[in-house]
Amino acid sequence: MTDAETRTDAEIRGLILKRLYELHSKSEWVDWDNFHELGLPQQEVGRYLKQLHELGLAEGKFVDSGENEEYADVQVRIRARGADAVESPNKRPPDVIIDQSIHIHDPQNVTFDIGKMNAVIDGFPATLGEKTEAKSLLLRLNENKLLTGLLQKWFSGQLTS
After folding, report:
1. pLDDT tens string 9-63
2. Rg for the chain (alpha carbons), in Å?
3. How many CB atoms lie under 10 A from the CB of residue 87?
4. d(CA 150, CA 133)
5. Is the pTM of this model over 0.70?
6. What 8-state DSSP symbol labels residue 14?
7. What is each CA distance from 45 to 14, 60, 71, 74, 97, in whole angstroms?
8. CATH 1.10.10.10 residue ranges for the chain
9. Which CATH number fits domain 1-99: 3.90.1150.10, 3.40.50.720, 3.40.50.300, 1.10.10.10?
10. What is the full DSSP assignment across 46-64?
11. In a designed cystine with 114, which of 5, 19, 63, 100 is the match (CB 3.0 to 4.6 A)?
């Protein structure tokens, strides 16, 4: 059983919303082809994007294929409410679950909770732009396997120069 098969619908909606959040700075409207790296079938991505649209977290253009309730094309953009849901767990609807932890497995079993870091960032004396950039960096770090691997070695004392 793959990781995608063990996720709940709310977790998959969160995964897709988080990916949409990452892509929104590159283009206002995002084509559904940009979600293939999540390992989900394209029609399934389309259905989850439609659910995010219905929840008011994304705005979408959905072109029906005319058969089997499938889509021929989907374009979406994140709404402010969707960005807030990614950045602030307290603004997230219960229909969306986003794993905000970076799990670094070493002898000390370190877990880095991004949600807690976001709360610390919010309370830190800095401009809104600086806080937004810091939160974005944390999210990108969580997605980067190379950096999380390096951090794993660093925390376990195995990183050498």
Report:
1. 998 999 999 889 888 776 689 888 888 888 889 999 999 999 999 999 999 999 9
2. 17
3. 20
4. 22
5. no
6. H
7. 12, 12, 10, 9, 16
8. 1-99
9. 1.10.10.10
10. HHHHHHHHHTTSEEEEEEE
11. 100
